[in-house]
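anyone seen this seq b4? input:
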Amino acid sequence: MVSNETEEKAITTNELLANYSDSVQNGLDNGSKYLQAFHTLSETTDGQSLLSAAVSLTNFKLNSDFVTFPHQFSDEDVQLIFFERLLSLSGIENNFRISNPQRVQKLLCKFDSLGDQTFTFTKSTKNSDGFFFGPTLNNRPLFYLNLKNKELMFHGASLIEYFVVDLEGLEIDAIKNALELLTKAAAILKENFGFKIDFNVLDGVNGEFYQFAAGALSEDVMDELFVKSAENHFVLMAEDNGGASLTLGNGTKMTVYDANQNGNRPKWGATIRDDQQNENWLYLLLDYPFIKKWYLNNQKQLEILSNQFIFG
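predicted toks r here
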């Protein structure tokens, strides 16, 4: 009888044990590699090493068929540990801390100035390397972070909904302390690591154009701004570009206009200029209640555009 050459060759006991030993060793070596990267994440004082460790730990497959580790930090935890250590190495860790370090999974953090509010990272469903940072009590993606692609993008609508609406009644300085920490962290990632940053409503550069979602603005919206300005002893002045400007306190000037006057599609938005370049669209809503009320009354038209692919 002719033997079947395709029949699987029987494995000897020694080969079985050798394969088992190799598989266990590979699993242990993989665990050692993970621990080495995690040690770097938690102990290094070098920023580039910190970033490299966080990138290597994100989506790291720690378990194998022969070796499993029951207690593991999640990818979301890795992002939070990186963010906390980035602030610490930069000397701006005050006001920010991981609030439950005794836990191994799903770390949370707090801003001291915001009381008991807790925050965490959540993995994006569109990109396994991307994560959203926001409060744990509601779905408010305040910013998007992708360490591998070196991207951080703030989400204007969520920032306003959370810091202006949800935290209404909290001291403005306490809110700004948290926001300033976020913008400082973003600036460090940009300047020291070459990240692409979209500050959106937190961009304080003079002349930054905050584009409105509606494109065009109705006369009623501008009329309402005129009335609310007058009620608060400010004068909305017509501009040569067809828009209008409002001079506020501390040398701050807000201008609302169509940036695409020669095109077919209107492109209305606003710019802010101030002597210290401290003001931005979000701070403006916090500092001037009548502008906040005008914005919230017309939010569908006045919402500042964010990256629709990431946040849509």
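The first helix runs from residue 13 to 43. The longest strand covers residues 118-123. kinda curious what u guys think
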